[in-house]
Amino acid sequence: MSFKNIILNLDGTLIDSAPGIEFAAEKAIANIISYGSNINIRKFIGPPIREVFKNALYLNDEEILDKLTKVFRRAYDESGWQKTNIYPGVQETLSCLKQLNVSNFIVTQQAKTADRENIKALSFATLFSGSRNARFPNFII
Questions:
Q1: Domain extent listing, the chain
Q2: Across the chain, what does the average pLDDT equal?
């Protein structure tokens, strides 16, 4: 089988952003509500962060969910993204695909700032032909 392009999801496929998500969620919970210190956010990670908070904290209060989401995004964009780890073997696999003239593309739903910073910090930029953000379809790295 021969192919020219491969499209990969950034978060959860190439990188593990759970440590940064946990960090930013803990900051948000500590800033907005007082009972969050023993909550295991990791098992709720996957859906959008608003849903994570809603499910993990059993919240239906839209105002509190808005505040949590806002503080989370600020904490993640400022420093949470720096806690991201690349999965073992990803760099080597992407390099091999590039050497085989396969164009690598990223599709992601992360915020633009986190996308750019993660790709730069993890030395991904030269291994990809482009990126498309599903939340911001006109955004290309």
A1: 5-16+87-133, 18-83
A2: 81
pTM over 0.70: yes
Domain 5-16+87-133 = CATH 3.40.50.1000: yes
Name the class of domain 18-83. mainly alpha
pLDDT at residue 113, as a whole number: 59
| CB contact burial 98-120 (16+ within 10 A = b; e otherwise) | eeeeeebebebebbeebbbbbbe
What are the residues facing 85 on neighbouring strands? 16
The DSSP-derived string for 20-74 is HHHHHHHHHHHHH-SS-TT--GGGG-SS-HHHHHHHHHT---HHHHHHHHHHHHH
CA distances from 6 to 12, 116, 123, 131, 141 (A): 16, 19, 18, 11, 16
pLDDT in tens, 107-141: 776 655 566 666 666 666 677 776 555 444 434 44
How big is the chain by its Cα radius of gyration, in Å? 17
SS3 19: helix
- Say which residue the tokens 């990223």 belong to: 106
